[in-house]
Automatic annotation (TrEMBL):
Organismal lineage: Eukaryota, Metazoa, Ecdysozoa, Nematoda, Chromadorea
Keyword Disulfide bond: yes
MF-aspect GO terms: metalloendopeptidase activity; zinc ion binding
Cofactors required: Zn(2+)
Binding-site residues for Zn(2+), renumbered to this chain: 74, 78, 84
Residue span, CUB domain: 250-380
Protein's name according to its UniProt entry: Metalloendopeptidase
Annotated Peptidase M12A domain residues: 1-179
Active-site feature positions: 75
UniProt-listed PANTHER family: DISCOIDIN, CUB, EGF, LAMININ , AND ZINC METALLOPROTEASE DOMAIN CONTAINING, ZINC METALLOPROTEINASE NAS-28
Keyword set, alphabetical order: Disulfide bond, EGF-like domain, Hydrolase, Metal-binding, Metalloprotease, Protease, Zinc
Cofactor mode of binding and number, as noted: Binds 1 zinc ion per subunit.
Amino acid sequence: MEATCTTVTTNTCINFTKTDDPKNAPVKPVLHFYPGALCNSNVGRLILTGSDGKDKIPDKQPISACDTFKTATHELAHALGFMHEQSRWDRDQYLTVDLTKVDANMRYNYNKYEKEENDNYGKQYDFGGNMHYKDNDMAKGAGDIVMIAKNPAYQMSIGGAIGPVFGDVYEMNMQYKCYDRCSSSATKCLYEGKPNPNKCDECQCPSGFGGKDCSERQAPSHGLTCGDTLEAGADWTAVTRTAPSHGLTCGDTLEAGADWTAVTSMRTVGAGNTDISKINESDPYHCTWHITAPAGKVIEYLVNYVRWPGDAGDYFCKPKYCYFGGVKIKGLEQTWIPEGMKFCCKPQFNQTMTTASNLLVIQAYNSFYYTDFSVQYKLIYSRFYSFSYTLLVP
């Protein structure tokens, strides 16, 4: 619970003070975390109606946050006024929800809000946000799927977040006007980053980006030294890189060319841990690659494979949601705020996609052993690119 409150305080202007005397607390209601049978919280401030018919704010507002960082941050966000992502007014543009697969007593979790009561502050729908259910949550049967992505490539990206992501922080800061703290700051953030309300000269960046102004690749974790920035060419090409995070030495920025090229990483992104009892899914190893192309061109890409080292099967796919390891890719959309599309299953491989701009962001992550992967890319002309010239007639 303390880690949950610290995360919100670190990334927003919202502060929490611990109290052992809720009745005499200077501000009410006091958020009361308790170990309930279910994970739940009221959406927004709890207001009760007294016997006299008047509204009353109770001394304590209960939050049954269960016992994980993910669920605690999810339930705290509810208390702060945030509803489920799949309840957005525009969710039907991105999802098909099959309520016949949901127990009648739990269908309210899929109620859709009206546009007038749901402001997402311009953020595009985020399959990977912390407020999004997994595709089978509240399903009647073990094999039932409740939510189906309109773009099938996003199916593995539905839910499964390990905690708040940039989009969650962005909405919270917008809702509580935290960014107003930096209204007089000269800080300019690239790729839709925002000034940190607790340090206005630095930016909070969408995943895949880093540096004080979000102009760099997100740094690797856990000491890894991997990743790169590469330039795409006109043909499919193959480049092998060792992938970073947690002290790793991986990641790169690459330029796309006309030939197919492949970014390949083997036994690099991860700690090599095979003891499932030591997994820390809230702090995965990760490493980022940027693929660039000249202005007026976009990048075609496809995932060759994502796998456990030496695994000819589909290990990362089996727990669903690419939980233990996978690759997240950004570039398909015209916004950088939502989380990237997850890849870890064979049916996702060898499907050609095209970026919306001249940048492709690839982030490999792992919390169990290593994530090996290979992604091919090449540049092509954008069909939206135009040019003008003057014809001189002698």
